[in-house]
Structure prediction request, 527 residues.
Amino acid sequence: MTNPTPKNQTIPKSPSDTSKTSTLPTIPKSLAKNYTDLPAFVERLRQNDQLIDVHAPVSCHLEITEITDRISKLPEDQNKALLFHNVTGYDVPLLINAVGNHRRTLMALGMESYQAGQDRIAFFAKPDFAALSSSSLWDKVKMLPQYAELRHVFPVPFRGKTAPCQEVVITDTTQPMLDKLPILTCWPDDGGPFITLPCVFLKDPLTGERNVGMYRMQKYDNCTTGMHWHKHHDGNHMYENARKAGKDRIEVAVALGCPPHIVYSATAPLPKGLNELLFAGFLHQKAVELVKCKTVDLEVPAQAEIILEGYVLLDEIKWEGPFGDHTGYYSLADNFPIFHITAMTHRQNPTYMTTIVGKPPQEDCYLGKATEQLFLPLLKIFLPEIVDMNLPWEGVFHNCVIVSINKRFPGHARKVMSALWGFGQLMFSKYVVVCDAHVNVQDVAAVAWHVFNNTDPKRDMAFSEGPMDILDHATPMWAYGSKVGIDATKKWETEGFTREWPDEIAMSEAVQEQVTTRWAELFPQGI
Prediction:
């Protein structure tokens, strides 16, 4: 009889096992329970050893960035959220790296795994759902049985006496507003302090539809910031719609310290017409409560920590930047609109929630990985041949996309490349790598092995040109450049490949199982 494998001994996977194995984590059901607001989420992190309370004095000028950058690059079990209680010169504590690993991201989204999230979000794959997301049409169809699960996730008015985010109201712009907040100057050559995790609320002047986005905001003084709306953002689209509507300004509200599932929803690449707050409610299966702003005609999450209310004039711009960006390089300074604050409201004892970006991995990498996985079902509506997708951190989510496909006809890989370049934000992908279905695209080393072995550069690289992310400093023109697709699939005779294609080396399953069974006998001392 063989000895049982010691509990602390891990049996190495067979090198010849080429099965597609997920490398993404899961969390217990107890951690996937929903929470009401940011303080409740922070307490859950603390109770589950996912938070470090820092009481030593620290500076929001560069020092917090250096501390957080080191923590964010530690192994997952050591990478913790940080709550700085003593930011020099400020009475407001600062929370950072709150969703800076897979475990905390899943906790924030209320999901046990990304697969569970895919199963839930597949609901939005229904062909008629986008049309139903508008509130006017929803009123007519909300009683249909197939949409019963949505009845409790549409945003609702706050029913209490005073919304938490309006416990303190400041409308006198001579009083401290932004000056009260420990806004980070992240990197040495940044143009100034930047608000980096704002949920920016707008109402389209032409359609009246609500939009929630996330755009960096450079602090200029106590009550003005930049508003980084570049041409690919919904914010810029609504800004231009205000001009078409004959207005001279557009009202804006900025929520800081929203519950993290709302923060995530502001970053999610939702289909046009799908409301971000409905999506946030769907993630947590509970409606987001909204409260009317004090000085602008907008509604914001009642459970947020801090609200900035104000407007952006259409004929006013200012030099903004540089900014140390998620590419790992500084994005260059340019002219952008100015946000004027007319009121600041907040909880009695608010927490300032922020983030840093820079060379990966950083906190934003985990939000990006969540998007990659959660929106795979929507991508598969249009490209059902796709098995899995990886947006590797090294590609900072717009430079590279790797997919595996069920290849069915000659040139199938090239068809997929072209489709991805025409699909939403994937249009920015500078490199598209297409592999066969059995390849684990989450394992970049395995992908590289297939690319280097299975490709002939002249035959298997397809070049194109088109729009690029404005943060790409390598393009020959601003926001426009070239792209390349790499076909790393096995080549067929019908694709002009007339040589014999060899099989990959793999040990038989019987021998693999035999060695696994005998492992403790072979290595009783462990390895």
